[in-house]
Design brief:
The structure is a single chain. It is built from 23 helices and 20 strands.
């Protein structure tokens, strides 16, 4: 198995202080201080008629180039992948060569979906943004997103790399999920995707124990497992525990509309359910080692914890990095279910503003980064899984999977079928990676989950403003206040201490006011 650069994207930031969040009306959004502010000049062409394209993406979520020569990736199909320049610079040059027009990209970043939405609400204008599925669902529902043009979907156009190379598995998700009766695919083009699961140390805990989320409540692993500092991810995780009996029952899993029923159950935000989930999260918070954003891998390697609930892209990164310290972690997906997430590109009406050239540039950018060799660059650089699979005439993406994971030996190997992802045919023998048996439940399993896992994967939708307020309040209760944890005597002591501090301050103020009388 080869090493990826795996310069991990920071998909979440530390949460704002609890008291500050409470004072702000329950918002748990954390803002990145280093986020670049987008230009507010309206994005009009400059004097030399250069198209200005304003793009806002996740932090560290695109190849920035500057690879060393020994990082060149030589694939079996003869393609050599090497990121010398940034993806942005290469796009600007490619666009001029392809369309004969200059384009200048103003590239900025965000740290959370909520931060992106706030930036937009404060008047920052963008042409093309890359939120997660629940946020682009919200933007579509609010009428803020521009549909892709008919030309973008024309498979006869050579430069339409997205429609000609997107995975059939991903295409089906975008076409089958709808907002207001219209499919995602009309408004959003995929970028990266993944699921959630447990990264764990098999020397300390078994795969069977890690196969259920109930391990988070197990006293035997008190303060030994960490979870994500994310209200949505934590809600989904606890909801699966809350509904475990239903989710794992044979009648439910064997039902004809299992996928539809699973999505409905895992998007239950009734007041009663939220209250039940809060109780479970309260128990988990007391049993867990920590709510973390980026410390899980280091804690695993240091032996502070035995498991960490993570996004699959982070899991790949964690396993890669742990190997450097001779720690071999594995990845497990809960038997209850898993959350499948998508990050996708959407064009904003306020930014494009009816400008045909600007829309063409935005669609061209999506196509440019969907070239298989560019998708490999981004995967190698950030460690996440691209929605691009290639096609029968271009096997770059599958060859990259082989480059990463294929065994260099002929003994003790196992077949890892990926036909469902690369060709849409689960039985396709052209898309099987021969991996070391010991690696079947490791990086490749997180990067490209098996079909049986994806059968119990579901989307977490966006919720109404009212329901988000309830969830935010629940999260504040979990992360900030456990008043019932403390006996009355403790609160009497705290109030007494506060009283003493207040009296001391008042006395000092009195002395200052009267010292010259």
């Amino acid at each position: 198995m080869r090493k990826r650069r795996g310069k991990k994207a920071c998909l979440a930031l530390m949460m704002a202080g609890c008291l500050l969040a409470a004072a702000a009306g329950g918002s748990m959004t954390a803002f990145a201080s280093e986020t670049d502010a987008a230009s507010n000049n309206g994005g009009t062409a400059s004097d030399d008629d250069t198209i200005v394209l304003r793009i806002c993406n996740w932090e560290e979520y695109i190849d920035e180039g500057d690879w060393d020569e020994d990082e060149a990736i030589d694939l079996d199909n003869g393609v050599t992948v090497l990121g010398e320049n940034s993806m942005i610079k290469d796009f600007e040059e490619w666009y001029y060569e392809t369309y004969g027009k200059k384009v200048k990209v103003e590239y900025s970043t965000f740290g959370t979906n909520e931060e992106l939405y706030t930036l937009m609400s404060l008047g920052n204008e963008f042409d093309l943004v890359c939120p997660s599925e629940y946020m682009f669902m919200k933007l579509i529902a609010e009428g803020k997103v521009l549909a892709y043009s008919d030309d973008f979907f024309d498979t006869s156009v050579e430069t339409n790399y997205y429609v000609n190379n997107v995975s059939p598995y991903i295409r089906n998700i975008y076409e089958s999920n709808e907002i207001n009766g219209e499919s995602w695919s009309q408004y959003a083009a995929g970028y990266m995707w993944g699921i959630t699961g447990m990264v764990y140390d098999p020397e300390e805990v078994t795969a069977e124990e890690m196969s259920s989320l109930t391990i988070l409540l197990d006293d035997d692993y008190n303060k030994q497992i960490s979870i994500k500092d994310s209200s949505r991810d934590s809600y989904f995780m606890a909801l699966a525990i809350y509904k475990r009996d239903l989710l794992t029952s044979e009648g439910f899993t064997q039902s004809e509309d299992y996928a539809g029923q699973l999505q409905e159950e895992m998007n239950d935000v009734s007041t009663e359910t939220i209250a039940g989930v809060e109780e479970i999260l309260t128990e988990i918070s007391r049993n867990a080692y920590s709510f973390e954003t980026d410390s899980g891998k280091a804690d695993l390697v240091a032996g502070k914890i035995v498991g960490n609930y993570q996004w699959s892209g982070d899991a790949v990164y964690s396993m890669d990095q742990a190997e450097e310290d001779d720690v071999y972690l594995e990845f497990a997906v809960p038997e209850e279910c898993t959350n499948i997430w998508m990050d996708g590109w959407v064009m904003l009406k306020d930014g494009i503003s009816g400008d045909a050239e600007k829309q063409q540039a935005a669609e061209a950018f999506v196509n440019f980064i969907s070239m298989p060799e560019n998708a490999v660059r981004n995967m190698y650089y950030i460690g996440y899984t691209s929605v691009i699979a290639g096609n029968e005439d271009d096997t770059t993406m599958f060859d990259y999977a082989n480059w990463c994971y294929a065994s260099e030996d002929e003994e003790d190997v196992a077949e890892y079928p990926l036909g469902y992802y690369f060709s849409g045919n689960s039985e396709d023998e052209d898309y099987i990676v021969m991996v070391d048996e010991e690696n079947v439940s490791r990086q490749i399993f997180a990067q490209y989950p098996s079909e049986d896992v994806l059968e119990r994967a579901t989307i977490m939708e966006y919720f109404s403003t009212e329901k988000m307020a309830e969830l935010n309040q629940m999260w504040i209760n979990i992360r900030c206040f456990h008043l019932s944890d403390y006996p009355a005597a403790v609160w009497v002591a705290i109030l007494a201490a506060v009283g003493v501090v207040v009296l001391v301050c008042l006395r000092k103020r009195y002395i200052r006011l009267h010292q010259y009388e």
